[in-house]
């Protein structure tokens, strides 16, 4: 096992992550079928040969000479994940570079994404699961979500792509939420803003300042938290997916909250879906809101 290979000057893998370049990932892991594919790479299932631990291997192809953009992106994701150590954040286990590929190895997260989970809840409710039990579980998952975001933000990371597909919920109870896929995350000071960056997330969850190509930072993640809390409580979205819905995002005109929202829930959502990012709750404040500390749903 070697040290970190040479990298672009402005992209440095942290000392805590040992990037292996004198062995192949296949030397240490049995690689299984493809789990998924995206712009930044292909994800395969795998099993550690020495421990039997199930893993997910994200493979980014950088070519024979290493494309500066794809190489920098792969190293950046490894770096950001290495800063995180939280039960609700994807766990990085190692990384390999051989030939034209970088392979990032993470603990495998099994279960459903958030939308699949909500469909599963409908089935469980139809089968007789109590509304009180379901509400308690949703409450736990929302708390896990804001804890995970607070952990990420405390490490000066902007996630930039909070959406149901990147939130995995375990099938096993008590159910656990895991924030996955840091491919679009970036590192910056909490007070900093990204200037006129191309939007990186999904439009249904993007904050007004992101849609307007204005400067944005960690508070844009908190808008997405507000959308996700609204979705988990009501089962619906606060904005419709249309041009009219986009205008309502820009104006902060979300759909009225019905009786499924407690007064504390309404207050929390109203403090997150705020057009002015400086007036939104930050992640640490969110964890201390009465919705989580007292009343809940």
TrEMBL record:
GO molecular function per UniProt: ATP binding; protein kinase activity
Residue ranges constituting the Protein kinase domain according to the UniProt record: 29-292
Xref: InterPro entries: Kinase-like_dom_sf (IPR011009), Prot_kinase_dom (IPR000719), Ser/Thr_kinase_AS (IPR008271)
A Pfam match: Pkinase
Name of this chain's protein: Protein kinase domain-containing protein
